Amino acid sequence: MNTILETRDLHFVYGGNSPTAQTALNGINLTIREGEFLGLIGHTGSGKTTFVQHLNGLLKPTSGQILYRGEDIHANGFKLRGLRFKVGLVFQYPEHQLFEETVARDIAFGPRNMGLSDAEVAERVRQAAAFVGLGDDVMDKSPFDLSGGQKRRAAIAGVIAMRPEVLILDEPTAGLDPYGAFQILSQIRGFRDKSGSTVVLVTHNMETVARAADRLVVFSQGTVAMDGTPEQIFGQPERLEALGLDVPQVSKVFMKLRELGIDVETSVYTVKYAKNLVETLLREGGQVC
Amino acid sequence: MLKDISLGQYIPGTSVIHRIDPRLKIVLTLAYIVVLFMAKGPLSYGLVLLTLGLIIVLSRIGVRFVLRSVRPLLFIILFTAVLNMFYVDGDVLWSWWILKITRQGIETAIYMVLRIAMLISGTFVLLNYTTSPIMLTDGIEQLLGPLKKIHVPVHELAMMMTIALRFIPTLIEETDKIMSAQKARGADFETGNVIRRAKALIPILVPLFVSAFRRADELAVAMECRCYRGSEGRTRLRTLKLQGLDYAAMAIAAVLAAGIITLGVVLP
Amino acid sequence: MIETKDLRFRYSDTLPFVLEGLNVTIKRGSFVAILGHNGSGKSTFAKHLNAILLPSGGKVLVDGMDTVDEDRLYDIRQHVGMVFQNPDNQIVATLVEEDVAFGPENLGVPQKEIRVRVDEALHAVGMYDFRDRATYQLSGGQKQRVAIAGIIAMRPRCVVLDEPTAMLDPVGRREVMRAIHDMNRTLGITVVLITHHMNEAVDADRVLVIDHGKLLLDGTPREVFSQAETLYRADLAVPQPVELIYALRRDGVDIPGDVLTVDECAEALYHLLKSRTNTRG
């Protein structure tokens, strides 16, 4: 896979030279590959939100480089504004940014800022709405008349409509009930599968990211603490707990099983996998101490 | 960060000036302004300057901050000075075509500059730098208390001020977030003429207003759930009480005021 | 202490009923969790408990007082306090202790006693050291604890919390849940917790499940979560340990279904795997 975004020794300090300056990012070296579904996890204050705001140029690093397809985005001559359309960022509680008279016009805000023709804009709006499951009946309504879940999906559609090559979502399931969270995640996955875009999901909810991501990067206190596949990352539940993260309950069950003396593999993090594992163990007679 | 603006330009401290009852500080500031306008002549002004110097030293606020308070109005001050220099009649010192500078003009200009500078810096030190917004609101509320008898909604106004102060940093943070979110969708707040830039503010103002109204709604319900029903039967955690320090301040202020006015009358 | 009799509610005559005949009794000192998906009516139900909303049909009685009785509104709200989802939109004052004092001030509590209550309430939620701090500087979890303290200072008999952890991160959620349980156990305050986090309901004395405005399930956490199928059909989830056991049982594995916590699940699996290998071996 090609590298689409890369950061080299990225440092970011809030407050510049003042005595209350805080280092938010402490030398991040991260490579994001095209088409991957990356889960960025870490406790609050670990720097993950600050980090993703560098990826679309909203924040400028104190030192270090950010490369988009090999080009330094802060070099002279690089069109930073255009980057925002290629690296789309959905903030936490994105429904708070809705402002237009109709849902359709709000979703169209991004494409219109890109200078596209009316026909092209309309097509993108239609497609984006379909991705998030918003029907035609909703498009002419005021965004303020929608339910909470619908508003959120309209806001996400507003970024998807720009057809970004990289879609970054900061806590897209925050405040949603389990069913709503499940719906949004499915839609994001559907978007990635159909468009081939790269997706970066920032969250502190392990259960959210466990099912969807190809790769997990764990942030802790402004640095990358862990980087690997879900199997590799969840295979170290003690380390995750030490980093201030909540391990899925099913992982805790298997940690306890190991404590009780049953030799089971370490990286169990979904119920489905756990069930299959138990049934396999039963069939084979298992290895018990 | 931006959020720190919430406490105005309040600089926390425990100096003598910080500890004076805010109601007294409000009254003293008004008295200061009145006395300042009654001052006349070098000795009188000198005493005012001395008073100001005393306040600044006692408050332990750096001179840097005091000067900063005057800076925004520097242009107006100089403009006024120049105007006075050229338009006061008297003994002409220099003239060219229709413009003339008189001795009285220069004097007036100097006194005017001093007066405005001392007015601003004095008010800032007494009310802004050494009095937190909460203290100020409490002070105003309790000073205006008696007006309740003539149906002035003192409590309601104070409550509005308190809530507004409390939400300023929250709203600033929210504006920041909304701006970032719209920028991420390609919004441009910098280019274009005045009209274009004003229009560009709509994606910020609409969500902000909607959010503010929603907050107000939720807050109102929360307040009612906590049995809020206006000032009826309401007690307070803290009430302002005058202490020894306040009486001393009043006495000193009275003496200084008398001095300034007398000097102004007797030796202008 | 709170009783609803055939509670029915709709927002206007042209809209459908959101609550359809709920009969619920909440006993003094208990910890009741109310579960339901978004739109099930659980929040609407909560708002009837302290008269924010009034019934369209049926009655709500708080310690014998009918919520429609305007003269008793003040007393009802002093008996039943409420904490909302958004930490910011319930904080009134710039300083922590001033916000906690807001409730007692409204109740006309004498000045010296306000001080006592504020300190007690802050200690109860573990925020006493923050009493002089500015409210906007607090984290979400801290703000919610201040909000809870603000209600505790009013010495209520019951506190209703409407999804208090929905907007918090895991650390904040833990802090707040601890404060809520402390409040119930140490101060004896009745707790009604509206939530969609299954894990929060596991520690309750009693769980009510509301679906489409009706009471679907009512029992101990163990009883309610053992009905996984019913919960799934109501668009709800169950805690992962329960989900795992249920999935195994559905596949025909012989394992006891009475499991609620991580530890119980691990124990059950342990015995299952040990016994199977022993019979084989």
Which structural traits does this protein have?
heterotrimer, B: 268 residues, mainly alpha, 11 helices, C: 281 residues, alpha/beta, 4-stranded antiparallel beta sheet, globular
Number of strands of chain A: 10
Tell me about the largest β-sheet of chain A: 6 strands, mixed
The amount of helix of chain A comes to 40-55%
H-E string of chain A: EEEHEEHEHHHHHEHEHEEHHHH
User: What oligomeric state best describes the polypeptide chains here?
Assistant: heterotrimer
Strand order of the largest sheet of chain A: 6-7-8-3-9-10
Percent range for helical residues of chain C?
Answer: 40-55%
Strand numbers in spatial order across the main sheet of chain C: 6-7-8-3-9-10
- The percentage of residues in β strands of chain A lies in 15-25%
Indicate the radius of gyration of chain A in whole angstroms: 21 Å
Number of helices of chain A: 13
- The span between the termini of chain C is 58 Å
Strand-residue proportion of chain C: 15-25%
Structural class of chain A: alpha/beta
By DSSP, the count of extended strands of chain C is 10
